[in-house]
Design brief:
Number of strands of chain A: 14
Helix content of chain B: 25-40%
Radius of gyration of chain B: 22 Å
CATH superfamily of one domain in chain B: Mur-like, catalytic domain
Radius of gyration of chain A: 17 Å
Largest sheet of chain B: 9 strands, mixed
Number of domains of chain A: 1
Strand content of chain A: 25-35%
Distance between the termini of chain A: 30 Å
Strand content of chain B: 15-25%
Number of helices of chain A: 7
Oligomer: heterodimer
Largest sheet of chain A: 6 strands, mixed
Strand order of the largest sheet of chain B: 2-3-1-4-5-6-9-10-11
Distance between the termini of chain B: 36 Å
Shape of chain A: globular
CATH architecture of chain A: 3-Layer(aba) Sandwich
Structural class of chain A: alpha/beta
Strand order of the largest sheet of chain A: 2-1-3-4-14-13
Order of helices and strands of chain B: HHEHEHEHEHEEEEEEEHHEEHEEHEHEH
Order of helices and strands of chain A: EHEEHHEHEEEEEEEEEEHHH
CATH topology of one domain in chain B: UDP-N-acetylmuramoyl-L-alanine:D-glutamate ligase
Chain lengths: 234, 445
Amino acid sequence: MATYQLQLAHLYGNLLNTYGDLGNIMALKYYGSLLDIDVASRVVSVEDDFKAADYDLMVIGAGQKFEQSIALEDIPSKHDELAKYIENNRPLLAVGEGYQLLGQSYIDQHGNKVAGAGLLSHRSELPADQEPIQDDLVVKTKWGLNYHGHENHDLVTYLGKDEQPLGKVIEGVGNNQDDDTEGAIYKNVFCTNMHTVLDRNGDLAKRMLITALANKYPDADLTPQREFKIEPTY
Amino acid sequence: MSFKSSVAAGVGHLSYSVLHDVFNRGSSLPGLIALKIDPDILYHYKDRYDFVIVGGTNGKTTATALAVQALKQKYPDVLYNPTGSNMKRGIATIFMSAPKPKKKGLAVLEVDEANIVRIVKYFKPKAFVFTNLFRDQLDRYSELYATWDRMLEGVRMAPNATIIANADDPIFNSVDLPNPRVWYGFDDQPMGDLEAPSNTDGVVCPKCHHIIHYGFITYGGLGAYFCPNCGHKRPELDYRVTAVDEMTSADSTVKFDDYEFKIPVGGSYNIYNALAAYSLSRFMGVDQEAIKTAFEKSPEIFGRQERVQIGDKEMVIIMVKNQIGVDTVLDMIKTDKEPFSFAFMLTALPADGEDTSWIWDCNFETLKEHDIPYYLVGASNYKDAATRFKFGGFTDVNVEPDPAKLIDRIKEMPTKRLYVVTCYTAMRQLRKALAEQKLIDGGME
């Protein structure tokens, strides 16, 4: 058994489940095992009770629009606890439709603009040409490292004032065709259009794990974890 | 028939003969030419045939070909599109290349889901056969419910056509329709109370949007579903698998309606394909014995599986294109009682689907139940595949970026048999190399 234990919530993991987000969770478990951490994962979905204090990590993934709409119906029952989770600086990864869902508004499967969860300040819209965006994506993060991935999304996203981009687009499209940004960061929430982002970018997995450890074990010496070098996988 | 249609049909027929002689294959070019002359050429054939349209993500080709074998026992003129050319021009080509039937013929057409509406415009089928709907390549045009809506557009134009559908797929029972319904499914196991694995697509009750449960699951999200919230459940079955007596990686012995059939390839998905063909054939009045004969004499119809002898080794090549394809293949491979090695070849060109995130939803870990001595991942996206296996806890996984080199590398493997589970582009690369070394015929795949 590892020295540290973290509990992960896979939010709507049986609904937003089409684009390999189990891979993000496998990455957190894999790097966790190298950092002396056991990561346990649990799906938290419609009608499940959710208490922010029970979880150290969270992933909300990419999926189909029909299932996104069902998750949206359930959001009010978890809204306040999710807000608490975010405001308490806990790490959350939101990908694709999960990213859109957390914002102010997005476009649903019928082409209608709907109010999102309202937990973050971005909004998502149809691109001007209404064509889905699929491309290899490379972004330069504020930490200096480039992240690599594949984007596959049908909406463009514009960030709110209190959000920073995950990175600046070097190759591909990213959030939209206008501002060269990709993804969003608010406190320790990381949003992206890159599917299975953690599998090619272990650096982000490590950041989330160390953030979660520092939250849960404030007195622990995390030097070995911080010094751990991530090998590239792309 | 209009003058334009006759000209178009004549030109199409002529170009079919020419192309067939030159290339020994028809392709869909004659249909394309005829459609240029008369875009409505298909009207020309609407009274010469009864029609059946087969649609669904997986199994269309196999179910169609099998049903045709069985239907031929009763109907003298059965036409189908055997090359998997399921777009409008491919279908036009089929009609043009066929001799005119003496009396009314039967056409069983595999039609791409999005094209059903375009075909039904020209003729009203006697029946639709719907096999299943899964997420295919992960592009944004193929969301399950959007695909189903497009299929329904075609169905609504033919309200008298009987819908023969897989009852185990919840999506086919999500909308009330005026059409007569015939349902087929598995009925060989006791009922419990299960949920599908969390990464299964489409597990929401279509009526009340709660997560559906299952009495049992056959694979993916297929099974005897019921909604614990609103009571919506799998419809009563008209044709059923009453027993699966034996399943190996090479064949299955099953009973449909208590009558024994031997299915000459492995995999539960092929039992579904055979059941779809059986259901259509029974609906069309073919007896069980004739269907049994048709199945047994048609092993080549099944699946994209190819066995290649390389010295004293055997390479079994199985093409996959999505997560459900991989999982059903893994379940089949696991029934092999002989030792084997395993290779997964990942490519991400447009023909394969450019988004490889589906590999993370495949249950490769299930292979650990088997003592497999040699793993290999390869092809152009070998790094993603290697990461998938590494994070999944596999150690000592070999890597080979070039699919052609599998022909040499099979020699280093400790088993006689190697399963190569491969995406389309990597399969083409491997088959090209096999053909160059005269290990297979170099014909069209």
